[in-house]
UniProtKB/TrEMBL annotation, chain B:
Pfam families: Sec1 (PF00995). The keyword Phosphoprotein applies. This is Vacuolar protein sorting-associated protein 45. GO terms for cellular component: endosome membrane; Golgi membrane. It is found in: Endosome membrane; Golgi apparatus membrane. It is a peripheral membrane protein. May play a role in vesicle-mediated protein trafficking from the Golgi stack through the trans-Golgi network. Keywords: Endosome, Golgi apparatus, Membrane, Phosphoprotein, Protein transport, Transport. The gene is PLEKHO1.
Length: 682, 579
């Protein structure tokens, strides 16, 4: 575009280049004390060849100041544009300055004085450095050997140009940080897809990639995220403490950069799936092999079961008569089997942090702090922690309020139930105690029962499940798993009977009461089933199969439902039969209703209703807190809280208040659970 | 033939051309609107554009570490601002894009100002119009005409916008215009002139069938903007007002702070994209589905996050959930407000009578209904005036015209004078005298039969009986039956084949009802692609506001209407023009 102007500028620049050369020559000549008239004539010729000089006669007055030229007031030619000025209106350019402009390279800069020098100081410095060289010649005006004579206009242009060069050389902090930020983002763009590919393949049980490699990559990517976060935060706070606060636009720029970095991290980090642990991976590999097979078998079983169920219903009578004995017999082996089934799960507890993708995420976030600390970035750590602390305080408060309210509600509910339950509770109390003490962590639920029946009831549910899960998880032979499947049905067939027969055996309770208790039990079955998918996480913090996001496990989880569904049906079917007075309680409805009785007995560790309704592992934990806490769960909770906090923080930043509310509510729930847990352990 | 895509591509290209590094986007008032219609902030942030500045803002700081992308209309002021900017550059390097053809002399003066050689690029990117929908554009000009003639400034702006559209779509069209409108003819000539002058720019690959530009005048169909609409986009525009995809909800009672202003953009909002052309009833059920869907994803109220599995699912779905909750709350609010307004203003009943006035010829029943509604206290003065306007337009020459009686009713109802004056204004604007074609009575045997059959079948939906006149015009055009004596070609050449690519431009503003018509035509007619544009998109309220601001202008400007922003969807769009 700017043809004219550019042409002009280009000319003056090329002129200068030529002149710097000639000047260089000239200096050489000077130092050699070999300066003759012929030389100076030559120089002049060169100078004139660069830019055509305006004819002296054409300019009677100085075009700038208007003074007439005379012998005293001599004409001077600008070496850059060739125009004529008087001496006052002429400027001189030092060689280093010219060099700097023509080469615009760093070394020329380094020799040159500071960029902010005014024209005058340029003169001064030139004088200082060059005077020695030009000592031979007088320092009179005519002998401007190392200076280039040019008009003020040309000099202005050159000075502007110099400023531009300086600006180019000088990179503000924000740019440096920003460049780093972009580099990190690029890295993520490169690595994240690679990692996701790896993780997907590993989670599917494939062996294309090695687990270690993927793990390393994951850590690498996470570090980059952390770096992005830290860098953008730094950009955000840049210059905030300066005395004249930065221009609002600068702040806006910083905010926007931070915002876009947050968006970036949000979008990408959340898409980062987790890796299986080594053991899980082994399982996954096995599972993958057997998956097809298993599926077929399970399908077959499903078909068989429906038939079996019919038969069993008919054969209900027999077990019912043997009720008491069977129950006691069952009591013995059940814990064992359970232990068998649950061991791998509890074994998984150790790795729970890593094995749960969710926890991994949490871990990432919290570990930012840890990593930052390790890396010695104390300031980041401080800011991170401060944020965390602030949030924590805030929500602690809210949580207490909520807890108070809840306990009040619980108390009310409790009153409703208490009367009915009083007698039962008294009777069952001691027996339960014993049972509880005898049983392990996982039988805790059972031990809370106030009736003998209870353990058995739950057992059938658990038993098949664990068997099956075990079979599925560890890839045991199909025969085994099918065998495991068989067990539940007969047992479950027994249930209604036991449920019904239990209370009378314990004491002659009025019918309505027994109905109630029975219903609650029935309800408890359902919760248990529901709990089941989540129970691995709840009970074992993370049982490998359930914790894995891969599709494989989900299939087996589904299958695991089978026995329970059956059970449930049995229960429904059995109810009217066993207890004709009861109005055919619908387990589903009850499930919803029965959360009420649950809180009725927080102080009584052995309250049946506690378990009966504990669909929520957290609630169960909290209610049964005294019975034995699992530290891991608490840790899990804490991590969960951290994670939610991170979300709240994010939502707050983005001003999405409704989300904040929702999240806060969740957080409160968690906190309450946690507090209860703690209270329990205390 | 997708205007949103065309503009978006321009913007993307600009940003890409400037390479990596922090960028600032320098715009003027109009280009800000143009860009914001096609790009969301977060989208543009991802492309390293962190600041958005107006070229005319004085409070800009020197930030040499930023690259400047200037997207400006080539107006005199902008060039002046740019010259000042280049003399004292605030940013390290400038990429300059003009939204239209810029004169050589302007380029020269810019070049002279660029002493520090900070300009890296100067280009023309023809995104000089507001892309509302893929097939709908607007120029956001209010009051483009004075009387029946163009305001010269607006004529040139309209010409620029229209030629920019043609350039961005790479079309060098044949031009037809509405003979009855002087404005249409003037505009057609101006466009033709530009095409001739900038013939180099308009040298595109020839298509078999040349594209067609049809220029119409709003005054030929003053009815459409006066009707209440029942499709989502049109309703929102009519009742709430859409301005550059933004909806101001601040007057909604009990609105939460972050919903004061919401953005409805089909580009980024799937629900809106899927529902903008559906009618109100369908929206209601879709909103319900959306809510249910959302409830499913949402952690349940009573059970909250009961297990770790729940929580895990929650956290994993959280980003999606966030996005969804934003969409849900936005649309629920908007639809809630719409239905509140509908019932508050008794709009269903009003609309039924409006439709009857527009589509049927039963004078006595129409008169009766109008009178009845005028007595209804729930009907706002605005709606009342609108009904009378419709009546006045339809039964202008009816033997037993009782307009004076209705005007009396209006006065008795307490309708302010400014509304009452609109009635005569609209008749002057879009009355029989002005119309080139007959809006109300069928013209030929086919149409008469059609209407007869329609009468037999009964109307499927009383609220959507009305078909904008544009539908018939376009239908004829597509079939090659549009009469040349009514819509002549500019120049000697005529189109022998049926047209394929059609740009329709309505002086005085298009409506969302017409946009819907075009959308449906595009869908149902294979091989035909239509883009609709107007000096604005009408909505009643904005017209009204215009009117209240400049009531004294009413007389003078009674000629051709136009309306503001996007908004004259309906009825008062026209009135706005006159006011």
């Amino acid at each position: 575009m700017t043809e004219q102007n550019r042409g002009h500028r280009a000319m003056s620049l090329s002129a200068m280049e030529g002149l710097t050369l000639t000047c260089g020559n000239r200096r050489n000549l000077l130092t050699a004390f070999d300066r003759t008239n012929t030389e100076s004539a030559k120089i002049r010729a060169i100078e004139k060849s660069v830019v055509p000089w305006v004819n002296d006669q054409d300019v009677p007055f100085c075009p700038d100041c208007g003074n007439k030229f005379s012998i005293r007031n001599r004409r001077h030619h600008c070496r850059l544009c060739g125009s004529i000025m008087c001496k006052k209106c002429m400027e001189l350019i030092s060689l280093p300055f010219a060099n700097k402009l023509t080469s615009a390279s760093k070394d020329s800069l380094s020799t040159h004085t500071s960029p902010s020098q005014s024209p005058n100081s340029v003169h001064g410095s030139r004088r200082g450095s060059i005077s020695s060289v030009s000592s031979v010649s007088s320092v009179l005006d005519e002998k401007d050997d190392d200076r280039i004579r040019c008009c003020t206009h040309c000099k202005d242009t050159l000075l502007k140009r110099e400023q531009q060069i300086d600006e180019k050389e000088h990179t503000p902090d924000i740019v440096k940080l920003y460049e780093k930020l972009r580099l990190c983002m690029e890295k993520v763009d490169q690595k994240a897809p690679e990692y996701i590919r790896m993780a997907a393949s590993l989670n599917a049980g494939e062996t294309t990639y090695s687990l270690e490699h993927a793990g390393d990559l994951r850590i690498e990517v996470q570090k980059v995220y952390e770096l992005i976060d830290a860098l953008s935060k730094k950009i955000l706070t840049l210059g905030l403490n300066q005395d004249p606060p930065p221009h609002p636009n600068t702040l806006r720029l910083q905010r926007m950069i931070r915002y876009s970095a947050t968006l970036f991290v949000q979008e990408k980090l959340l898409g980062l799936m987790s890796l299986p642990t080594r053991e899980q991976f082994e399982e996954l590999k096995k599972k993958r092999k057997q998956e097809m097979e298993r599926k077929r078998i399970l399908e077959r079983q499903a078909a068989l079961e429906s038939q079996r169920r019919l038969k069993e219903r008919r054969s209900d009578l027999a077990p019912r008569t043997a009720n008491g004995e069977v129950a006691s017999l069952r009591g013995g082996p059940a814990p064992l089997r359970k232990a068998e089934g649950w061991l791998p799960l509890s074994g998984g507890q150790g790795q729970s942090e890593d094995s749960d993708p969710l926890l991994q995420q949490i871990h990432n976030i919290t570990s930012f702090i840890r990593q930052a600390r390790a890396a010695g970035r104390a300031d980041e750590v401080r800011t991170l922690q401060e944020n965390l602390r602030q949030l924590q305080d805030e929500y602690d408060q809210q949580q207490t309020e909520k807890a108070i309210e809840l306990s009040r509600r619980q108390a009310e509910e409790e009153d409703l139930q208490r009367e009915q339950l009083q007698m039962l509770r008294e009777r069952e109390w001691e027996r339960e105690r014993e049972q509880f003490q005898a049983t392990s962590l996982h039988t805790r639920t059972r031990s809370l029962d106030f009736r003998e029946i209870r353990p058995f009831q739950l057992e059938p549910g658990r038993e098949p499940r664990t068997h099956l899960a075990y079979a599925l998880d560890l890839g045991s032979s199909p025969v085994q798993s099918s065998a495991a499947q068989k067990t539940p049905s007969p047992v479950s067939a027994l249930e209604p009977v036991r449920v019904w027969s239990g209370p009378p055996a314990l004491g002659q309770e009025p019918l309505p009461q027994s109905t109630v208790s029975q219903q609650s039990e029935l309800a408890s079955l359902n919760p248990f089933e529901e709990e089941d998918p989540s129970s691995p996480t709840a009970d074992g913090t993370t049982s490998p199969p359930a914790a894995e996001p891969a599709s494989g496990p989900s299939a087996c989880v589904l299958k695991e439902y089978n026995p329970f569904e059956e059970e449930e049906e049995e229960a429904v079917a059995g109810n009217p039969f066993t207890n004709p007075d009861s109005p055919a309680p619908n387990p589903f409805d009850e499930e919803d209703e029965y959360p009420c009785p649950r809180p009725s007995s927080p102080p009584v560790p052995g309250n049946p209703f506690e378990e009966a309704t504990c669909t929520n592992p957290f609630e169960m934990d909290s209610d049964s807190g005294p019975e034995g806490e699992e530290p891991i769960e608490e840790e899990l909770l804490l991590q969960q809280i951290d994670n939610i906090k991170a979300y709240i923080f994010d939502a707050k930043q983005c001003g999405r208040l409704d989300e904040v509310e929702l999240l806060t509510e969740n957080l409160r729930e968690l906190k309450r659970t946690l507090a209860k847990q703690k209270g329990g352990t205390d | 033939m997708n205007v949103v895509f065309a503009v978006k591509q321009y913007v993307s290209k600009m940003i890409e051309d400037s390479g990596p590094g922090m960028k600032v986007l320098l715009m003027d008032k109009e280009t800000t609107g143009i860009v914001s219609m096609v790009y969301t902030q977060s989208e543009i942030l991802q492309k390293e554009v962190y600041l958005f500045e107006r070229i005319d803002s004085q409070n800009r700081e020197i930030m040499k570490h930023l690259k400047a992308i200037c997207f400006l209309r080539p107006t005199k002021e902008n060039v002046d601002y740019l010259i000042q900017e280049l003399r004292r550059p605030k940013y390290s390097i400038y990429f300059i894009y003009f939204s239209n053809v810029i004169s050589k002399s302007d380029v020269k003066s810019l070049a002279e100002a660029d002493e520090q050689e900070v300009v890296a690029e100067v280009q023309e990117f023809y995104g000089d119009y507001i892309a509302v929908n893929p097939h709908l554009f607007s120029l956001n000009i209010l009051g483009c005409c004075q009387g029946r003639n163009w305001d010269p400034a607006q004529l040139s702006r309209t010409t620029q916008g229209l030629t920019a559209l043609l350039l961005s779509l790479k079309k060098c069209p044949m031009i037809r215009y509405q003979l009855s409108s002087e404005s249409a003819k003037r505009l057609a000539e101006c466009v033709k002139q530009v095409i001739t002058k900038e013939y180099e720019l308009f040298e595109f690959r020839r298509t078999e069938v040349p594209p067609l530009l049809l220029i119409l005048d709003r005054c030929d169909d003053a009815i459409t903007p006066l009707l209440n609409q029942w499709t989502y986009q049109a309703m929102v525009h009519e009742l709430l007002g859409i301005n550059n995809n933004r909806i101001d909800l601040s007057r909604v009672p009990g609105i939460s702070k972050d919903l004061r202003e919401v953005v409805l953009s089909a580009e980024n909002d799937e629900f809106y994209a899927n529902n903008m052309y559906l009618n109100f009833a369908e929206i209601g059920s879709n909103i319900k589905n959306l809510m249910e869907d959302f409830q499913k994803k949402k952690p349940k109220e009573q059970q909250k996050l009961e297990s770790i599995a729940d929580m895990k699912a929650f956290v994993e779905n959280y980003p999606q959930f966030k996005k969804m909750s934003g969409t849900v709350s936005k649309h629920v609010t908007v639809v809630g407000e719409l239905s509140r307004l509908v019932s508050e203003r008794n709009l269903l009943e009003v609309s039924e009578v409006e439709q009857e006035l527009a589509c049927q010829n039963d004078h006595s029943s129409a008169l009766q209904n109008v009178k009845r509604l005028l007595q209804n206290p729930k009907v706002t003065e605005f709606d009342a005036a609108r009904l009378v306007m419709l009546y006045a337009l339809h039964y202008e020459r009816h033997s037993s015209n009782s307009l004076p009686g209705l005007m009396m009713d209006l006065r008795n109802k307490g309708v302010s004078e400014k509304y009452r004056k609109l009635v005569s204004a609209i008749v002057e604007y879009g009355g029989k005298r002005v119309r080139g074609s007959d809006l109300f009575s069928p013209k030929d045997a086919v149409a008469i039969t059609k209407q007869f059959l329609k009468g037999l079948k009964g109307v499927e939906n009383v609220y959507t009986q009305h078909q904008p006149f544009l539908h018939e015009t376009l239908d004829h055009l597509i079939k090659g039956k549009l009469k040349e004596n009514l819509y002549p070609y500019l120049g000697p050449n005529t189109l022998r084949d049926r047209p394929q690519d059609i740009v329709v431009f309505i002086i005085g503003g298009a409506t969302y009802e017409e946009a819907l018509t075009v959308y449906n035509l595009n869908r149902t007619t294979p091989g035909v692609r239509i883009v609709l544009g107007g000096t604005t998109v009408h909505n009643t309220k904005r017209g009204l506001r215009m009117e209240t601001i400049r009531p004294h202008l009413r007389r003078r400007s009674a000629g051709s209407g136009n309306s503001a922003g996007k908004g004259f969807s309906g009825r008062f769009g026209k009135t706005a023009m006159w006011c």
